[in-house]
Amino acid sequence: MARFKRLSVEELVVLEKQFVQFLAAQSILAEDWEKIKSTKPVEADEIIDDFSDLVYGSVMSEAKYLERKTPRTLYCYQCLSDRFVLIALEVDTDAGIDLSNLDMAGLKHISTKAQAHVCTTEKPYMKSRENEIFSMMELGCEITEGAMFKVLGLLL
User: Fold this and answer.
1) Do strands 65-69 and 83-91 pair parallel, antiparallel, or not at all (unpaired)?
2) HSE value, Cβ hemisphere, 13 Å, CA-based, for 10
3) In what order do the strands lie in the sheet with 83-91?
4) What are the distances in angstroms from CA 118 to CA 58, 121, 122?
5) Cα 23 to the center of its chain, rounded Å
6) CA distance 60 to 57
7) Which are the contacts of 141, defined by CB distance < 8 A and separation ≥ 6?
8) CA–CA dist 32, 64 (Å, integer)
9) In the chain, where are the structural domains located?
10) Which residues contact 41 (CB under 8 A, 6 or more apart)?
11) pTM (2 decimals)?
12) CA dihedral sign, ordered 38, 27, 47, 60
């Protein structure tokens, strides 16, 4: 069973070169892979799960920042070795501002308004760092470079 989730067929197509390298590292040649797929589908699924875990694990281990936007809130997370640091921006309901598609220029404009509130907190990881980041992505977070986190950090 995959630690994260199995890559979709479309994702596997995009990562075909890396998957072929993965199979080669396992001493599985192209004709062997075709035979495994047709005669041992459970084993083929396990191989795809292993590759999926490798890909997701690599992406999660490299992630430094996450963001999630809703119409009224912007959640920016820094992913440290032992915990998340959250900086959140919330706008009042009557502010008439939708943060769902906020960019850096809009953030600088909004952060100066009285109807915006910034707060911060920390949360230690309850599972492995990679699994926590994956769980956050399943809840709608996206990996970012951290620009909004850094700007919001200046407002604290």
Assistant:
1) unpaired
2) 0
3) 116-124, 83-91, 73-79, 65-69, 142-144
4) 32, 11, 14
5) 25
6) 5
7) 66, 67, 68, 75, 77
8) 38
9) 9-62, 65-154
10) none
11) 0.85
12) negative
Structure tokens at 27: 């001493």
Amino acid, res. 96: G
Q: What residue type is 9 in one-letter code?
A: V
Q: What is the pLDDT along the chain (156 residues), one digit of tens a residue?
A: 668 999 999 999 999 999 999 999 999 999 999 999 999 999 999 999 999 999 999 999 999 999 999 999 999 999 999 999 999 999 887 777 888 988 888 877 775 555 788 899 999 999 999 999 999 999 999 999 999 999 999 877
Structure tokens at 78: 């820094």
- If you search the block for the tokens 């479309």, which residue do you land on? 10
